[in-house]
User: Fold these one by one.
Assistant:
Number 1:
Amino acid sequence: MELPEVAAPELSLDTMRDITRELSSDAFEGRAPGTVGEEKTLALLTAKFAEAGIEPGNGDSWYQDVPLVSIEAKNVSALTVKGDAEAMDFAYGPEMVITSYQEQAKIDVTDSEMVFVGYGINAPEREWNDYDGVDVKGKTVVILVNDPDFGTESLEGEFGGRAMTYYGRWTYKYEEAARQGAAAALIIHDTAPAAYGWNVVESSWSGPQFYAQSANGGADQTKANGWIQKEVAAKIFASAGQDLDQMMTAARNKAFKAVPLGLTASMSFENDIGKMNSKNVIGMIKGKTRPDEYVLYTAHWDHLGRCKPAPDGDDICNGAVDNATGTAALVALAEAHVKAGTPDRSILFLAVTAEESGLLGSKYYAENPIYPLNKTVGGVNMDAFAMAGPAKNIVVVGKGKSQLDRYLEGALTVEGRVAEAEPTPEKGFYYRSDHFSFAKLGVPMIYFDGGEDLIEGGRAAGEAVSKDYTENRYHGPKDEFDPNWNWDGVMADLKVYYTVARMLAMTEDWPNWNEGDEFRDIRDKSLADS
Ligand SMILES: [Zn+2]
């Protein structure tokens, strides 16, 4: 099938810059769900969607309610670890962080036996079970981050080689610990396999944490979920007469068996619990010839709100790059698609909430779609534009997964740019933004990052910018708007996002996941129902 020809779009740099600046200003307080920052974000976004000339996407409403519960740990005790030797206390914040998914006013974990469960994975289809032969009910499990073949060079292996699988994500590890009946789950932080430093853990895990509302108030969850610093883990293992490094090596082996540490853990804290409806925002352009077929744009509008202060006292995580840029892009793209005239298929512009809390807004939409997923042709997710300047490449997260790659390549060829597979699949980016919520239910989704092979300065310059972002800005108070940013690369990437979706909106094609991909069967079944 030929790709449709798409004329050059009118994409407004002013829209991108002005909306990014405004959403990331201190007045928006870091856009945490349920705060004044949410109110301001919703007001701004709906006004801009209306100005752009698109329609409300949920009947005559711009909104979809997303029922959330917020739980904030207060008066957190130290983590006390006891054994034969003297008890050790580890401080909340610098040494450990903790939260609860249970809607309980007071959480007490008292003298709970500690068990090291390796990577904390129970994967019957891979015949791998770190919980085999051990009963962890009421106990505190200690878990490694990422998955067992994280350290290998290739992409071959029990768990995708160097690439992270869903089993490597912290969300999975807490889910499995709860299924096993553990009282508490502590993940050992390690910068390389976690893909971010302790600073990110500490800022992301302090303040209110959000969850989807559940009928049982989280009663099936562990009482306490947290992280401990690697040095803390080393001390705990040493006092148990074990060596952390040796244990880490042993856990990579399929024959690994969970190790009771002969120690107990105690901790307590209070929970501040709130319930609310946060909101996804949705606008649409109704298609001309096939209005009941939908092309989807997604970007999360939320960020972390007030967070751990920087040394200068700044305690607002502004989220300028992450993801004021992607939210602004929804508006700039809406304007451009309206100017280009009515497309054949409908185009949806979905700004989701609570991505930072575990993709909650996108998951809610995907499970309660306003437009059927088997009528949703495919989509594009935007999360954090690269501010490094124009690049020769783009970096595709999940390259080779779906036939959308053809559209992406078509859009890039015109620009003389190339698509590269992500260089660091071990960081698990495929599971770390909203496209995953849709992919999991079968909708083909494209997600890419601006490339690091810069037109000026090449890879060295690009890598330096991205290293600075990850180490000094990502999920911290210094992800702020910078008036000196060079927007040329952003506008070039925006054009690619435009072209891919425009082509999809002007074809009759239904690109699918490639044969053998993990999501192909789900899509085939879903399409068969339509
Ligand atoms: Zn983001």
Number 2:
Amino acid sequence: MSPAPELKATLTLPKTAFPMKANLPQNEPLRLARWAELRLYEELRKAGRGRPPYILHDGPPYANGPMHLGHALNHGLKDFVVKSKTMAGFESPYVPGFDCHGLPIEIKVDEHLGRKKHEMPVPAVLDACRAYAQKYVDLQTSQLVRLGCFGRWDKPYKTMARDYEARTLEAFYGFLEKGFVYRGLKPVYWCIHDRTALAEAEVEYAMHTSPSVYVRYRLTSDPGAIHPALAGREVYTIIWTTTPWTLPASMAVALHPDFEYVALESSSELGAPGPSPLGSGDAKSTGPVYIVAAELAASVASACQLDAPAELARFKGSVLERATFQHPFLDRSVLGVLATYVTADQGTGAVHTAPSHGADDFYTGQRYNLDATTRVDASGHIHVDPAAWPFATPPAFEGKTVWAANPIIVAMLEESGALLASSDLEHSYPHCWRCHHPVIFRATEQWFIGLETPVEREDGSQTTYRQLAIEEIDKVVWDPAWGKERITNMIASRPDWCISRQRIWGVPIAVFLCQGCNQPIIDPALNRKIVDLFDREGAEAWHTTPIEELLPANAVCKNCGEIRPPGQGFRKEYDILDVWFDSGTSWFAVCESDLDLKTAYTAFQNNEGVPVLYLEGGDQHRGWFHSSLLTSVALRGHAPYSHVATAGWTLDEQGRAMSKSLGNGVDPVDIANRMGGEIVRLWVASIDFREDMAASENLMLRCADIYRKLRNTFKILLGNLHGFDPARDRVPESELLPLDRYMLARTRELTEKIRAWYAAFEFHRVYHAVNEFAIVDLSNFYIDVLKDRMYTFAPTSHARRSAQTVLWQITEALARLVAPILSFTADEVWDHLPPVQGREPSVHLAQFPAPCEIFSEDPTPLLDEWKQLFAVREEVMRKLEAERQKKSMGKGLEAKVLLHCGPESLATLKRNSTSLKEFFNVSDVELTSEPIVDSDGQPTLNVRELVGFEFLPYVEPASGHKCARCWNFMPEVSDYGIWQNVCTRCQSALKEMGIAPPQPTQ
Ligand SMILES: [Zn+2]
Ligand SMILES: [Zn+2]
Ligand SMILES: [Zn+2]
């Protein structure tokens, strides 16, 4: 005979196979495998057919390394958007992309190949680059898949794909044929190490030591023409430079037209014929005279140790225009020119001007028609201008790098007596962002897109390309709003877009240049032919296809009339396009061309209300947002997007950027492997992404802690659904107990809010609201007060089914609402929910709950009513606590609550009377409109007014007897077999459960 079961064992405790321990690192990969087996992404597309489209166009991350936390942040956010849009009823495909061309990969491959590269044919080098990029495309793909990001990962777009390369070239031809492109000499940042031009964005500033030299230039024009006091004197001006290697390119001295300049006579220094009276200003003196800006005279005199200089004359800079000077070591006349950028902050006020090596210099040179030919080659080796070097032996700097040339040139200056002072200067200097070497300015032949190109608006009116781009910015929704001003300012002030790079890993600017005039052949039919070639064979074709196969034998240059074959007339251009041009044309190569996107994207372009979102880090205002805007405005007349959202930076807890040297980096892959991808996702959701986001091991652990609490709530919810079959047991809304109705109203309210927050990308609000709901509303309140009903009532009783109905609806709603963020766990919960016919095999195929399906009425009146009930509860709890303090009572169940009510509160409380006992967690509640009276029949207390609601709680010991099973104080308890003191409610529950009264063992 087995012993009688314990009475406790007859309680209906929560039961579920949903494990408390998540084991995310082990279980997430299993769920990924299941999703792959379900072909979930394809199923989502099938389910989305016919729904309104929503396009999030992925900006391609650069495929040259593993994913870092910034990627995880961006992709996590994108995944939230795509999933929440999908569950809100949109068709939101996600075609991920990868940026594959460009210098960083080419440099890495160069390092790998070493000397071998020079013996390899170009296509073989390109193959090596392709393989390198593909390796990281694969790695990043696996990492993003691991984090649970949904997308067309088996067919992403890659800027190195043949069709993408063909579209990039086609876009370039679009610019060329529409007249946006010109070829010109321009000073650009140049990295001699990487042998390429750099965009502004590719330059970073770091400290660098340069030689600082003061050099005198002897005046060769008539000094008397400048000022009568100078007539017949030996006159110089002094220039100051920190780049002596640019002196061989010195063509002019720039002076400010409005500054005061002084002519100083020094009594003794280099080259002076002998001592003369101190500060005499003696007109008979024959020493040299120096012209410098008046404001800088003292500092120059001091730097150059001009002894007690006296001012001979004073005049405006404008009088020096077209004065001539002798170059200090070349056979060249240097021109006096005027420029308003000359400052009086440092230097001498007379600025050495090398049009081939400075932006200001270049434009000044254009005004004065100065030679801007660069005699520094791509690798930074300097060559003498033969027109200015009459000697047979080349100068010592010939063939040296600019850095090696510096001391040689300083020595030449010293030898010629032109050097007045020399020292070292440590200053902030531009460096290459890739190789971190200092860069130089170099005038080179480059391809440009002109921002001032005239264009036509849609209405036919004329404007400029720049202006139209600015007008288009205005039509886009920028989130956060400051992005609009930022990109507007950048477009307004940017120089023409230099789109050429002198490298090979990229899309070649596939044009033929005339050998006669250096201009490209612009022939749309020829261009289409080359695009077709790229479509078939990729960019390699440009290197492998002989010119004869492409260019007709009788091709003529429309510009100068050059023809081939005489002199072979034309050559291929091998410069490649800026990678920002590649990625900036993704709206064309992907959105307009990809079968999964083009219908919806075309609808967007036709103003049919389809949203197109770009979501990236805040630096993309000068990157991808910027280049995409420019290409789309030029080729389509419109911005390529309707919405742009930007994320802040990921920083450590102290607000510092993450770096290897600080060791404060957080690796999302490592976190996923140790704690779970879900924890990374929860972290992404936890902070407003518009701000900078702090991340650390510590913060990840905190997210893991929050995760455990959420998971625990899900486990209890699921446990309480044991034995509940929605089809059989669901209680109609009108028959629910008052407390359960309230919880449904609350769930509806939460659902409405969460849906609105998803729509506004307020993921952190979703995160906080879900946490609060799970912990405060569910764990600490509803699930807690339900214990009596759930554990002790007959399992199939109406009251228990009422609670289960609501717990089920809450779990259903919550699993869907958190699915975009907690993608793994929501799906796991989904698997453990009571089976429902026709249910989707994954939560991700389900939709967000419709608020009215959760609760059919406007929830506000009910929620307001319960605000008052909660105020009553608070007072009751205070009273109970006071009794506990007095030790007159222990648990709430030992108490009975007597509530004296005003008329309004009485009506409200009565309406909800069946829920009050559990709401207060006491054994009995009595409502009365009678005031409490003392022995004389006088009211002892006034009914208290609270929230416009009159009530006064009074607590007394519950009457009756404590039930051994449910611990309630009940009017009737009796023995149930050998079990003593079991209340009638529990007895009928036991009967319904088929538990016969246990008999004593013999
Ligand atoms: Zn470099
Ligand atoms: Zn020509
Ligand atoms: Zn009982």
